[in-house]
């Protein structure tokens, strides 16, 4: 009898007991039994790979599947032909290693054994890390699910790297990895970079698992990407193991969380301090008492000159407003980073060294820098002006501008109806200069607002970020467009730009508008009152509400996303008729009190149904309409059915 076989069988039996106790299958998954396999779209031969054994999850076919537990340990009684073959193979592998490649099928980054499950079983028992495998890939049907999107991004990555060991869980992750290493997903990577990448990953994997005990290999890939986003990859190649372990421990909150956008807690109001009996935390951890003699020090980090960027100018106005409202209990300093980001970390570190306790970075381009500095300085409170960043080390903030663009769409449709010629097709222009995480939501909310008032009106979309539609205004005039929305409110626009809804002035040329020598007729504009937001955030720190709220939370990421109900977001339209003003107030109040949402009820894109409506035949209006989730709004990549034109997808930066 083989002691190795008996020990392996005991491990298998223990795995069976654990699986049954947890209500799981005690046997290996079978690829052919997966329901989605019938929808696969073909096979592709990959070749022989040195495959990490942890990637092998099951068997290709059902035959003899009950011979192994779900950890690949044997279950057949000792003294059988099966046990003898297993024991002989174990002795052979101890002496000579696995001599013949196993045959496996790969599906969605999981590998299933066709031939050689005893070799896998023995290799696992002997705690071997790799095994040679002859791999055939089964391609899944393309769908809009996150998992399939990520997998097809993996195939692009594999095509240029042949690196199969990195399996991320979030769309855009492979593109981010390529960007961090100065590569792309279109041209083959050099052998030197691939060698460094493999060495760095497995160095990280060994040390990471020794500290955090993660058993999900996909999450370890996510953790690796996060690590090299904070610390250069060369640190894994050049630093000592002690230093790498120190780095991992420093960033362990982020690495352990490995959160996605679905894990973010979106807050629609500032933290408040509730009057209740003091907890032990409050008794022994009093909030700091800020006074004029001992004020809260707050830093604002800009990456554009105030005089050259309307975006930064708006945040500066908000900072000054907050100072005026709160008074001498707060002291604020501004810090200027280069627009190219070359010194952003140094500038933020200077703000830390100057003893600022609360630091705002006002551009999403500084999110990665904010993450790095937050990990290195955990006692400082950091906020970055972005939305959808799943990091517990710092908080994100922005306004739900789409609620105001929804009102702007209602206003535009109403005015177009009153001004357009009867029986003529009606179109409203919408201009997009560049893509960011809110572009699709703002545009679609505007379009849905238009359709609410005038279902037949079309939105003539002009996206000029790729160099096309440079003469967008002339194109609109040819299309009989009466008014257009140029609402983009971002860091790239000049200080003289005034976003808003405009009626075309036929006595003005596009060149005059671009050069600011003349303008179309301004109607109104959505806005964000940064001063209101900053005063609420600063006050939450002064009152201690920030810290008390933090004690009640787990390590989930927090994003502040304020809308019309807070007064941070709104619509300014100074010269509209009072009847129109009353109509807009009706829709605004419906949103404020939660009775309406731009992305609730039935929604159709240019090609599909995005949100199902009331499918019954009752004439009664439904009481509650299903809304899109926050993550669906942020990661939006479709255009509403009344929009004419196209726009490239936006990949949210991780």
The main β sheet shows up as: 7 strands, parallel
Through-space gap between termini: 54 Å
Q: Low-confidence parts lasting 5 or more residues at pLDDT below 50? A: 275-286, 490-495
Kindly identify the CATH topology of the largest domain: Rossmann fold
Shape: globular
**Quick one: CATH class of the largest domain?**
Alpha Beta
Structural class: alpha/beta
Number of alpha- plus pi-helical segments: 22
Radius of gyration: 29 Å
Task: Explain what you see.
- The protein is α/β, with parallel strands linked by helices and 654 residues long.
- The chain has four domains: 1-139, Conserved hypothetical protein from pyrococcus furiosus pfu- 392566-001, ParB domain (Alpha-Beta Complex); 142-258, no CATH class; 267-399 and 531-562, Rossmann fold (3-Layer(aba) Sandwich), CATH 3.40.50.2300; 401-528 and 566-644, 3-Layer(aba) Sandwich (Rossmann fold), CATH 3.40.50.
- 39% of the residues lie in helices and 17% in strands.
- The chain has 22 helices and 21 strands.
- The strands form four sheets. Strands 6-17-11-10-9-7-8 form a seven-stranded parallel beta sheet, with helices on both faces.
- Strand 12, helix 16 (439-453) and strand 13 (458-463) form a beta-alpha-beta unit.
- Residues 275-286 and 490-495 have low confidence and may be disordered.
């Amino acid at each position: 009898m083989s002691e190795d076989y008996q020990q392996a069988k005991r491990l298998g039996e223990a795995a069976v007991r654990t699986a049954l106790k947890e209500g799981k299958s005690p046997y290996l998954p079978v690829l052919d039994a997966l329901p989605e396999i019938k929808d696969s779209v073909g096979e592709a031969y990959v070749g022989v790979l040195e495959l990490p054994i942890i990637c092998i999850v099951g068997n290709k076919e059902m035959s003899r599947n009950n011979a192994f537990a779900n950890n690949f340990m044997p279950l057949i009684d000792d003294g059988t032909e099966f046990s003898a073959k297993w024991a002989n193979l174990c002795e052979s592998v101890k002496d000579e290693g696995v001599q013949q490649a196993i045959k496996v099928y790969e599906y969605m980054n999981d590998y299933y054994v066709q031939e050689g499950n005893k070799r896998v079983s023995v290799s696992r028992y002997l705690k071997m890390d790799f095994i040679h495998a002859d791999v055939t890939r089964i391609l899944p049907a393309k769908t809009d699910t996150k998992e399939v999107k990520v997998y097809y991004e993996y195939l692009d990555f594999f095509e240029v790297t042949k690196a199969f060991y990195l399996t991320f869980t979030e769309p855009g992750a492979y593109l981010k990895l390529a960007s961090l290493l100065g590569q792309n997903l279109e041209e083959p990577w050099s052998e030197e970079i691939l060698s460094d990448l493999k060495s760095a990953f497995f160095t990280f994997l060994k040390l990471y698992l020794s500290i955090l005990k993660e058993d999900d290999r996909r999450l370890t890939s996510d953790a690796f990407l996060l690590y090299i986003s904070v610390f250069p990859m060369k640190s894994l190649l050049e630093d000592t193991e002690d230093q790498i372990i120190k780095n991992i421990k420093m960033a362990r909150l982020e690495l352990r969380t490995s959160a996605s956008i679905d894990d973010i807690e979106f807050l629609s109001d500032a933290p408040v301090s509730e009057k209740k009996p003091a907890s032990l935390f409050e008794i022994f951890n009093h909030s700091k008492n800020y006074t004029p003699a001992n004020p809260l020090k707050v830093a604002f980090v800009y990456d554009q000159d105030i005089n050259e960027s309307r975006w930064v100018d708006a945040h500066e106005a908000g900072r000054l407003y907050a100072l005026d409202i709160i008074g001498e209990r707060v002291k604020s300093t501004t810090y200027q980073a280069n627009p190219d980001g070359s010194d952003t970390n140094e500038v933020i570190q200077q703000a830390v060294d100057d003893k600022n306790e609360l630091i705002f970075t006002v551009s999403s381009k500084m999110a990665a820098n904010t993450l790095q500095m937050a990990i290195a300085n955990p006692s400082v409170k950091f906020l970055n002006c972005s939305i959808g960043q799943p990091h517990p080390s710092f908080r994100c903030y922005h306004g739900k501008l789409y609620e105001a663009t929804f009102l702007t769409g209602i206003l535009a449709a109403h005015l177009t109806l009153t001004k357009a010629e009867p029986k003529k097709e009606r179109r409203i222009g919408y201009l997009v200069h560049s893509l960011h995480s809110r572009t699709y939501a703002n545009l679609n909310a505007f379009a849905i607002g238009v359709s609410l008032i005038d279902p037949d009106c079309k939105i003539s979309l002009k996206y000029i970020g790729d160099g096309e539609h440079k003469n967008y205004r002339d194109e609109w005039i040819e299309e009989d467009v009466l008014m257009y929305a140029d609402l983009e409110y971002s860091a790239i626009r000049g200080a003289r730009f005034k976003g808003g809804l405009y009626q075309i002035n036929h006595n003005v040329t596009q060149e005059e508008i671009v050069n600011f020598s003349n303008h179309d007729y301004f109607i109104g504009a959505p806005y964000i009152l940064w001063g209101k937001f900053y005063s609420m955030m600063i006050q939450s720190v002064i009152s201690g509400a920030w810290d008390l709220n933090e004690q009640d939370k787990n390590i989930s990421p927090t994003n502040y996303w304020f809308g019309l109900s807070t007064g941070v977001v709104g619509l300014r339209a100074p010269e509209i008729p009072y009847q129109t003003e009353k109509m807009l107030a009706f829709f605004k109040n419906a949103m404020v009190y939660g009775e309406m949402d731009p992305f609730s009820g039935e929604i159709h894109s240019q090609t599909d149904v995005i949100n199902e409506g009331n499918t019954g035949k009752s004439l009664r209006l439904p009481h509650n309409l299903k809304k899109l989730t926050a993550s669906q709004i942020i990661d939006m990549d479709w255009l509403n059915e009344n929009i004419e034109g196209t726009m490239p997808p936006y990949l949210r930066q991780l």
